[in-house]
Amino acid sequence: MNGSSPSAAGVEFNGVQRHFGDVTALAGLDLEIHPGELVALLGPSGCGKTTALRILGGFDKPDGGTVSVGGRDLTKVPAHKRDMGMVFQAYSLFPNMDVRTNVAFGLRMRGATKTDRYKRADELLELVGLTGTGDRYPYQLSGGQQQRVAIARALAIEPTVLLLDEPLSALDARVRLQLRGEIRSIQQRLGITTLFVTHDQSEALSMADRVGVMRSGRLEQLDTPENVYRDPATAFVAEFVGAMNRVAGRIGDDGDVVVLGQRVPTVPGRAGTAYAPGAPVEALLRPEALQALPDAGGPGEISERTFLGSAVRLKVNLDDGQAIMVEAPSHGTDLPLGARVGLKVVADQVVVADPGTTPVAVPSAA
Predict the structure, then answer these.
(1) 343 and 324 in contact (C-beta within 8 Å)?
(2) At 36, is the secondary structure helix, strand, or coil?
(3) Please, are residues 317 and 338 in contact by the beta-carbon 8 Å criterion?
(4) pLDDT at res. 272
(5) Residue 88, class by beta-carbon neighbours within 10 Å (0-12 exposed, 13-18 middle, 19+ buried)?
(6) pLDDT at 207
């Protein structure tokens, strides 16, 4: 993470609760965002991530707990006095205003002169790659360009905190990929403290300094993208972030898991419960944590082969009825459909879960 700007402020949620009737949206959320840091909240629908963002922005009120920015308690401060910039999924631009006036709107509300606010608007349009578009109207811009205008408008007031609520989900895949890189670059350049809510794993992992995975109003894990992916704190995180196989196994006498005929250490402190030796479990193995090897007498057969560019994903049907996905570099992986294979676990350690528990439903990253 780049250094934060001198005006950057940290954010703290302390025991924040929010209930909607019998539904608990936030169950005592504790979250700290460091000055200048971008934290992405990731999780399934209804996990509480958007509620947390709305409470930070002042658009909703908690039933308990506090929210502070820069050490100042803002829990009861109205939204228009919180000095925050907001970018929504829908661009929310004023259709009757040209681009320059849209960007300058917040400055107008703060009493800035027309000269100063238009100068600032043109500077920000240059920052987001829209130099020369100030006289156009929103309908004359593409979706990606309109979202850039929305970002410029949010930044115009020099907010203490930037809030991004699914800002890319309405865009097509190519524009989404380009714009997420641009948003991250701008955020780092300005050093602005940012909370980013998304359902897209690739966005969270590629843009954030830290990712918070939420479930049922609670943080399951808050860590760097690398640690969330490689060292998940719970079975839920392991399954929600990235593709995952559930493979039947059992606990060995030394606490390791015996899976696919091999003994593999379990992740320390990640098993969730203490399993007795011999207990049946399911090992959670990512496709790249497995290797398919030619073996005429092997326990599996390749039933699908999907080319992914730099990698190939193989579906291996085991004789015991399990179907397992294996991912390998596309160069040198020439196993054909119908080939009999053996499977080798190449992970140093694995997360285990109770057998038969419901797998996590992961939304498409479309």
Answers:
(1) yes
(2) coil
(3) no
(4) 44
(5) middle
(6) 94
Helix (H) or strand (E) holding 123: helix 114-127
The rounded distance, in Å, linking the Cα atoms of 153 and 120 is 10
Residue 360 backbone phi and psi in degrees, to 5: -70, 135
pLDDT at 3: 58
Retrieve residue 192's tokens: 């602005």
pLDDT of residue 366: 27
Which parts of the chain register pLDDT below 50? 1, 271-272, 361-366
pTM of the model: 0.84
How do 84-87 and 161-165 pair as beta strands? parallel
Going from the N-terminus, what domains does the chain have, and what CATH number goes with each? 11-230 (3.40.50.300), 243-353 (2.40.50.140)
Q: C-alpha angle with apex 196: 50 to 159, nearest 5 degrees?
A: 105
Of 171, 139, 120, which is closest to residue 183 (Cα–Cα)? 171
Phi, psi angles (nearest 5°) of residue 149: -65, -40
Cα–Cα nearest to 217, from 64, 88, 2, 34 = 64
* AA identity, residue 182: E
Sequence-separated (6 or more) residues with CB below 8 Å from residue 286? 242, 243, 244, 245, 327, 347
SS3 of residue 9 by DSSP: coil
Backbone angles phi, psi at 298, to 5 degrees: -70, 165
260 Cβ partners below 8 Å, 6+ apart?
A: 247, 249, 343, 344, 345
> For position 265, what pLDDT does the model report?
87
Neighbour order of strands in the sheet with 262-264:
262-264, 257-259, 245-251, 280-285, 351-353
Q: Considering only CA atoms, which of 341, 293, 334 is closest in space to residue 316?
A: 341
Tens-digit pLDDT profile for residues 318-356: 998 889 999 988 887 788 899 999 999 998 888 888 886
How far the first Cα of the chain sits from its last, in Å, is 28
pLDDT tens per residue across span 1-16: 455 665 678 999 999 9
Burial class from Cβ neighbours inside 10 Å (0-12, 13-18, 19+) for residue 193 reads buried
Q: For the stretch 50-78, what's the b/e string if a residue is b when 16 or more beta carbons lie within 10 angstroms of its beta carbon?
A: bbbbbbbbbbbebeebebbbbeeebeeee
